[in-house]
Amino acid sequence: MRVKEANYLEPGEIAVTTVLAAVLAFVFIVPFLWMTLSSLKVPAELFIVPMQWLPKKPQWSNYLRIFNEFPFLLDFRNTSILVVVNIVSAVASNTLIAYGFSKIEWKGRETLFYVVLATLILPFQVVMIPLFILFHRLHWIGTFLPLTVPGFFGSAFFIFLLRQFFLSIPNELCYAAKIDGASEFRIYSRIILPLSTPAITTVIIFSFLRTWNDFIGPLIFLTDNKLYTLSLGAQQIMHNLDPKWDMLLTLGVIMTFPVLVIFFLLQKYFIQGIAMTGIKG
Question: Which of 144, 192, 210, 225 has the greatest number of CB atoms lying within 10 Å of its CB?
Fold first, then answer.
């Protein structure tokens, strides 16, 4: 009797899996495809009933108008600054905190970790007003500081993700390094971080997506148009009495493109980071 190998799929199972994957891919692709095609239409074509997928005459000029009629470059610069700073802070702070929760033995470590983990229960809307009052008293409203400084104090989700990954790294490596006289920081920087590329890449992707798509944070803390991000810029297009739907869809396509590029370039590490997180805990 032949024993079925692990991770082996029968032809029927492969067919079902392929069909389900194709259906799910279609569900996710259709809205993006509609947005891309609609960005090439004139406003009148967007509301034709029944809906027409293809534009009668592609309006490639919509992508030029986004630079001429909209402060795209300024908003893109502001968004990029926030993205870079938040990625750096996420990697620097959360890896260090996760190392302390996973590789250093100290009294109350597990209890404090669960307290940190419990903060995930609190949605941003609950702490929004206290944060605004705090940043107002610090005179940070109207600057990038409320959107960047908190990242240097860690994120409960990133700490959990990295801690679980660090736990899968054998402690024997750390013990051997300590015998050779290595300090905790040297072990962290020379052993743990190089072995944690998938988890760190996952943190980078999540941090990028969180900052790139963030709307409520900039809406609350930014008061100067010169500091607006792309998400706020899109809201400004909608705020007009005559919304420019073609420009809004064009901006949507442009904002989606970097997300797709980042994911396809780093998807191998992203999948490894998610798959290997939680192996040990």
Answer: 192
Chain position carrying tokens 């949507």: 252
Yes or no: say if 91 and 203 are a contact pair by the CB < 8 Å rule: yes
Topology adopted by domain 62-276 = MetI-like fold (1.10.3720)
Closest CA to 198 of 272, 88, 261, 265: 272
Computed from CA positions of residues 107, 112, 113, 114, in that sequence, does the dihedral angle turn out positive or negative?
positive
pLDDT digits (tens, 9 = 90+) for 172-198: 989 999 988 889 999 999 999 999 888
Q: Rounded to the nearest 10 degrees, what angle do helices 245-276 and 197-212 cross at?
A: 160
- Domain segments of the chain: what residues? 62-276
- The pLDDT tens digits for 198-230 are 889 889 999 999 999 999 999 999 998 899 999
Task: Report how far residue 108's alpha carbon sits from residue 115's, in angstroms, rounded to the nearest whole number.
Answer: 11
Tell how many helices (H) and how many strands (E) occur in the chain: 14, 0
